[in-house]
Amino acid sequence: MPSAVLTPTKDKAVDAALEPAVPVPNSEYLTRYQTHQSLISILHSTLTEPVLAQVVGLTTSQAVWDCLRQNFSQQSLANATHLKFQLLSITKGTKPMSEYLALAKSLSDQLAAIRAPVSSDDLVSYVIRRLGLDYAMLITAIMQFPPITQFY
């Protein structure tokens, strides 16, 4: 007995046995497939062997990214916490001012690199808070100025 289906645009039965589905090739499939393979190759070439072992066998670039994100998100969180603690703990002490500011900037840049940026206002606040009494007048002067937009 031939099977009949109703088409959504017409209210008549169509004999499915007479009109077999004809596959329509997706003209963009090959291009997308090659792009994914290129991305996977690029990702693989930039990974160290222990990290590469975690993504071997994944077939899409999205799967590789998801695996990397999942594996490193906790490490990034721990690293961000550690860097923030370092930033809050540094003091000028006997270091030259240029070295002290470079250290603060380096910690801030590292936080920004792992997507945990410190605002310029907060960075200035952290830096001047740990300068010490020798810089009390400078701190007072800095506090009188409007907030700066970037810390260089």
Q: How would you explain this protein's 3D organization?
A:
- The protein is mainly alpha-helical.
- It has two domains: 28-77, no CATH class; 90-152, no CATH class.
- Helix content is 59%, strand content 4%.
- It has six helices and two strands, in the order ββαααααα.
- Strands 1-2 form a two-stranded antiparallel sheet.
- It is elongated.
- The termini are far apart.
- The relative contact order is 0.07.
- The mean pLDDT is 82.
Overall geometry: elongated
As for the number of domains, it is 2
Question: What is the residue-mean pLDDT, rounded to a whole number?
Answer: 82
Taking strands numbered 1, 2, ... along the chain, how are they ordered across the largest sheet?
1-2
**DSSP helix fraction:** 55-70%
Radius of gyration: 30 Å
Order of helices and strands: EEHHHHHH
Task: Return residue spans where pLDDT drops below 50 for at least 5 consecutive residues.
Answer: none
Sum this structure up briefly:
This protein has 152 residues and is mainly α.
Helices, strands, pairings?
Blueprint: E1 4-6, E2 13-15, H1 29-46, H2 49-55, H3 61-89, H4 97-113, H5 120-129, H6 136-144
Antiparallel strand pairs: 1-2
Tag the structure with descriptive keywords.
2 domains
